[in-house]
Amino acid sequence: MKKWDDFINEMEPERRKEAQIIQAKARMVSELIHIRETLGWTQQQLADAAGMKQPAIARFEGGTTAPSIETIIRIALALNVQIRFVGSTAGLEEAASFEEEVFV
């Protein structure tokens, strides 16, 4: 049986990018939901901590809205988590020195 990544890699480049975006979004949302639930927080508690309304958290977690970078950062700060970009391509030595400035 094929793995999801194998399936994505066999797609046409344009469709592959779309699938990778959907996959990355789903992973991020899933991780933030997991962190919220691990803390024992309700959506309302997260909304209060992030300065948002509960329906906005529900839409974010349900995938029915595309949140802004500001919204993602608000949620990350409320959950006390860091957002990092990790790459596996050449030339990341320069980016590594910049890492401390770009994570929340």
UniProtKB/TrEMBL annotation:
A Pfam family annotated for this UniProt entry: HTH_3
UniProt-listed PROSITE patterns: HTH_CROC1
Gene3D superfamilies with a match to the protein in the record: lambda repressor-like DNA-binding domains
Residues annotated as transmembrane: none
InterPro entries found in the cross-reference section: Cro/C1-type_HTH, Lambda_DNA-bd_dom_sf
Highest taxon of source: Bacteria
One Gene Ontology MF term: DNA binding
Positions of the HTH cro/C1-type domain: 32-86
Protein name per UniProt: Helix-turn-helix protein
Source organism (scientific name): Paenibacillus taihuensis
Lineage, opening ranks: Bacteria, Bacillati, Bacillota, Bacilli, Bacillales
